[in-house]
Amino acid sequence: MADPSPASRRAKVAGAAVAAVLVALFAWQTFETVSSRPKIVRELERSPIERFGIDRAADPRLPAPAIDLAALDGSRFSLAAARGQVVFVNFWATWCPPCRDEMPSMVALGQGLAARYPGQFKMVAVTVDEKLAEVREYFAAPPFAGPPAGLTVAHDADSSVTRAYYAQARGFVPDIKFPETYIVDKTGRLVAYVVGPRDWSDPAARAFLEALIRS
């Protein structure tokens, strides 16, 4: 059998080179897919509560810091008096846009839980505004047209309660930023917290709180 011509040999070499490049590209794409898969799988396997962003307090066995503050309606709010209820404590200010943005969905969640579990759930919005007049103005405007039913608005004038909660949840004193939310269980322990604003209509938030209420 005669040897192939030079042109034929060149064609075979070129074909082999193209095939090698295609194999290499396929192998690289396969490696990229396989190497990224665990991260994707871990994200999918995270529970809805984890994806929502509820963090466990540094030591959930500890009692929550005391709260005894003046409220918007002229009364006082005491955490001790709420023992036996799950208490949702949100730290915020009217000058904080993310705080204002999350407030409507937060209020709706609180009203829904209070209606379904009478006497077992309490929502408190602790403001660090300098003056309560600013808070009254905020709630007088849409979408509220007045202080929301079922929401206790308390005033932490010197931010001392705010600092106590931020520090206990983490085990150290962080930079104070708003908003943040803290969950106190029925026995008065600080069990969880949420950093930053949330859409509180997310079913994961309600499921987490209902589990605490029923426990």
CATH superfamily of the largest domain: Glutaredoxin
Q: How much helix, percentage-wise, in residues?
A: 40-55%
Tell me which oligomeric state these chains represent. Answer: single chain
Give the topology string: H per helix, E per strand: HHEEEEHEHEHEEH
Please, how many domains? 2
Strand elements, count: 8
Largest sheet: 8 strands, mixed
**Morphology call:** globular
The number of helical elements comes to 6
Strand content: 15-25%
For the structure shown, list the relevant keywords:
215 residues, alpha+beta, Glutaredoxin, 2 domains, eight-stranded mixed beta sheet, 6 helices, 8 strands, globular, disordered N terminus
3D structure, described in words:
45% of the residues lie in helices and 18% in strands. It folds into two domains: 1-45; 50-214, 3-Layer(aba) Sandwich (Glutaredoxin), CATH 3.40.30. Strands 1-8-7-4-5-6-2-3 form an eight-stranded mixed beta sheet, sandwiched between helices. The protein has 215 residues and is an alpha+beta fold. Mean pLDDT is 85; it is low at 1-37 and 40-44.
